[in-house]
Each structure stands twice: as structure tokens, then as C-alpha cells.
Design goal:
By secondary structure, the chain is α+β, with helices and mostly antiparallel strands. The protein is built from 17 helices and 37 strands.
Length: about 700
Amino acid sequence: MLNAYLLRVKAHHLMTVFIGVDVGGTFTDFSVSLPGEHREIVYKVPSTPADPDRAIVAGLRELFAQHGIAAGSVVRLAHGTTVGTNALIQRRVGKVAVVTTEGFRDLLEIRRQTRPKVYDIHMDHSVVLVPRELRIEVRERMRADGQVHVPLHEKSVEAAARKLAKEAVNCVAVCFLHAHAYPKHEQRAARILRRVLGKNVAVITSSSVYPEFREYERFSTTVLNGALLTVMDAYLARFSRAVGALGVKAAPTISQSAGGLMSIGMARRSPIRSALSGPAAGALGASYRARTAGFADVITLDVGGTSADVALLTRGEPDLVHSRTLAGFPLRLPALDVNSVGAGGGSIAWIDRDGLLKIGPHSAGAVPGPACYDLGGTEATVTDANVLLGRLNSEALLDGRMKIRADLAAAAVDRLAKRIRLDRLETAFGMVRLVAAIMVKAIRTISIERGHDPGRFALFAFGGAGPLHGSEVARELGISRVIIPPNPGILCAEGLLNSDLVADFVQTALALFSATSLARINRVGNALTARARQWFQREQVAPADRRADWSTDLRYAGQNFELSIPCPAAPLAARDLDEIAGRFHTAHEQAYGFKQVGEPIEFVSLRVKLLGVLEKPELAKLAPRAPGKPIHTRRVAIAKDAWRDAPVYRRLDLAPGQQFEGPAIIEQMDCTTPLFPGDRMRVDDWGNLVVDLAKGA
């Protein structure tokens, strides 16, 4: 019996293929795991921003043909997408209307009555996605205690529906006061709207998107979700059909902002959950790699073609936040705490009105791309500067598949240099140092400004351009060690393979956190338990693969903001309250420097994070082999007027345990790593490059 079981397991692994796909602004990345062959494949193709799925399908077709992979053997196809984010930034979204409580039509414009930047009198808020004529009030009012103050006037809802039917809207968002706790009016209004408007118009409620208090943030999140419904539904339907036509039978899964994956069905219902998914996948990939290799505390630096994304991982785990800003609008949904800035390989250098050199946030992207790509780009980018400094190959990238025109890079930088009256090399150095300074500032925000000494952490550099700038960024922050994973440019795609199905549910019910409110708190817990059970069943998660992490949001009575504290699964017992309260006092002291043990604590919300555990390919250790030798040398600019001959190594040739000092260049298909004089590099058992920086350099 045991032998038969082992044979079945072996046969399963021989015929299984896991694929992660991450679409970036410049490249689309593929990470392929074939457990039965103990083999990993990494691949990159230029992105197709107008139709992102075209690059995915083309890349899959090339992968299947080049490596003899049967499309039908794919058991996991996980996709990280920026379609939703780009659609909101560019305002290429569906036409949304809002039906709201009488008197609250202008809440989306009034906001919090604060300026985006206090001292910038010229900066204004982003224009509301829903014009005023499409924000319609109806008569209803639910009080904060659940009592009906004004019954829902169904005739006014029907009148609103008839008016909106003439406006050709794609979605109607129903946003009522206090619906986070008492959703009956919203639900009834939605049924009326669906009956009148028909199936061609989506109708969503704020209580179904994310039922948390604070009306403005809840309304804003609902509108953002409604704006993406049409865009993402069309994209995901097209994507599913295209990969199905290739012969892939596995249902694709989509990366989400809070980390983890969701089904296509959930992504089409809640597209806003995927809006910040790209940076989240990279943080999860770094977390998995760092923990496996024994590095607990790291700061991640993920540099792509458009942005640099940074996160702080303590004990191998990234933090979770519940509020973010997206395209200028508040988003009240869980997301990994990743700070993003417009500084990447494709970031364009320009001269400001003050005559100073600036980098980004505008990027050349995939098209027209940096000048050296010879795809029509003429403006100087960070990639062009690195080519001129010898840090990037001046002939070809992607293992020779992408030709590089160093002469076009020189021409672009020369035009910029002429305007600031510097020579070519000074300008290129200035560009590289400036983009590193932007990355340093982003890391300071998540470390020093939150009480963390970056010198205690290692810098985990990845993305297509992360290893290029990692050493300089680390030195500026007092970090002495830089870690570069085996396939830095593919780590976001690889992170998708190490993820589970994830869902987050929350319910607000303000009450004192004491035994007198235990029944009310447990009613909230029972409701969340029922929603969790429904989600597990809908996503077809087997009982053995179900996990649930519970937490509660607490604050001292009278405070405006709350802290999230881990707690046991609902229902809670009276003895649990004291233990949870103790954790809250400790967390409050850590966050604010004081605690008030005698003060009453207020219960705000209960949360549950659900995991449907998926099979994951194991990380393989690097196979023993002879130490790699340089394939040639290249002149590299170490500093102004300081060029050095640096040996160039192929990353695939390096052996576990191999060590050498810089200067050196390490090239691979998806990125390039420069090693500066005095820096010492060793290859660990997992294939990571561990670079110890020279002191005082």
C-alpha cells in the first residue's frame, strides 16, 4: 500500500507544472517549477502595455515550445497584474454612479476636509471618479444603534434607477450611512436597482465590498471597486480564454494586495483587491527566500522598470496595513506594507525649473523604453546611465535576446549633459546617485521614521534593477550586507508560486471591550464564521487545507484610531478578554510610547484572515559544481575618472560556497550585479549571493 502511494505521488509530481506570471511596466516575468524534474525555468519577454495578456500568451507559447512543456500539465497558473492600478491612474475605468443616503451626496468631494499636502497651496485632491449628476440621494436613514430613523423610500430608489438607465452607466454603487453594521437598507435598494436596470449594469453595496466604519473611506473603496469591475472583468475573461486556448486546463489565480491569491471569480467580483498586488508578490517571494536561507530581518528593495518598492520584514514576515492611497483616493482594504516610489530602470532624467537634475517618476516603460533599447525612446533613463558606466552590458541583455545600442544611450545622456553643463560621465553618475537617493528616502520612511535601525537589517535586493543599485543604497543607510536571490528579476513571479488562497473579512461593532459586551462581540464573530465557511466552500478548499487567523481592532475609549491585536478564533470566552487587553496595552506602548492600563478599552472591529493552503514547489539547493571562472573583463566606472577592469562572471557558473572580492560583474538573464572594490561575495547553499560591503568604502 505504501509503495503504491509513493508511486502515485511520484507520478503526480512528474506531470505537474507550476507557473507564476508577473506583468511589469517594462517586462513580463515567468517563473516555472517542474518538481518532478527538480527543475526551475525563468523567462522574460517585453511587456505589451496596451494589452498585457498578449505578452503573457506569447511568453507561455515560447516557454512550452522551447522546453517541451505540455500545456495540459500546468496545475497552477498564478498571475500578478497591474491592469487595475494603471486603469485608475489613467482614469480608463467604467462609468460609475452612486446611490446614497439623503444629505450625503457630496461626501466623496468633501472628504476629510484636509489638504493632500498641508504646505502646498497649489496641490488639490484628485477629481472625484463619479460626477455630481451621477450621485443620487434617496430617502433612508439608519441610526448608529441600528434603529430605523427614516424607512427606505423604495419609490425614490426606483426613480434613481430609471434616471441612471438613461445614463448608460456600467456600475451603481449603493453607499448608505451605517450600512457597515446594518446593511438591510443597502441590500433592499440593490435588489430594486437590479430589477429595474437589468443584468447589463452591475450593482454593488458598500457592505459587501468591505463593511468597516468611517463612511468616506468605505464609500471611496466601493467606488474604486465599481470603477474597475468592467475593466477587470473584460481583461480576466480575455486572459482566461487565451490561456485556455493554449491548452492550459488549470483555472488561473490572481495575486492580491494583502498577499496571497484569489480565484478568477473573486477577482472579477472584487477587482480592487488586486490593485496593489505586484509589490505584494515580491515581498512574499523575498520573505520565503530569506526565511529559507536563515535571514530573519531584511529590508526588501524591488526595483523594476518604473518603480522601486520597499518593505521591512521582521522575523521573516512583512507587516499588514488596512489603509492605503491609490491614484489619490483612500483605499480601505488590507495590503502588505510596501512603500513605492517612481524610481526604476526606465525612470527618465529631466531638468526642473530650478535647473537641477531630477529622476522620475515618469518612466519610458516598455514602449518606447530607454534610448539604448532602440525602440523609439530618446530621453535619458537610469538604464542608459548604467550602460555608459559599464555596469550593464553594452551589447545585449536577456541572454542576448535584447540588443543594446550604447551609442543611443550616449546621445541621450549627452543631450541632458549639455543642458546642465556637465560631461557625459558626470551626468551618468549623477543620475545613478540620484535614483539611489530616492530609494534611500523610501527605505527611511519604513525604517528610521518608525523606530527601526536599518543597520540591523540586511538589504534583500531584487527586481531587474535592484542588484544594480543595492550596494550604493545599503551604504547610504549603514547596512553592511546585501542579499541577492538566484533570479532577482523573476522574484515577484516566483513569489506567486509560494502563495496560498487568501481572503480577509471584517465586521465593525463599536462596544466596550468587557464581559458586558461579550455577547455582542460573539454575534459579530459568529457572522464572520459563517462568511468564512461560505468562502471555503465556494473556493472548494478541503477541510484539511483551511486556516484562519483572527484579530480584533481595539482602542482606548475616546481615541480616533485603533490597533489590530491577534486573538483566538470566535466565539471568545470571558477569560480571553484579559489576555487580549494585555496584548493591546503592550502594543499601544510600542506604537505610542505609553499605555493606560486603567482606562476602558473600546472594541471596534473583528477580523479574520482565511487561507486555503495550496501545494507549493520546494526551493532547491544549488547543486555542487566546480567554481565558475570569468568569461571576459569589462571596463567599469567605479567613480568619476576611475575606471577599473572588472572580471565578468555568469551567474549560472557560480558554485555553492564560491567567494571572491570586487570589482566584478555578475551577469544573468534577468539582471546584472556589480561588485565594488573591497566588497566580498559568497554563494550560499540556496544560490543567494551574500555580499558583505567593504567598511569605510
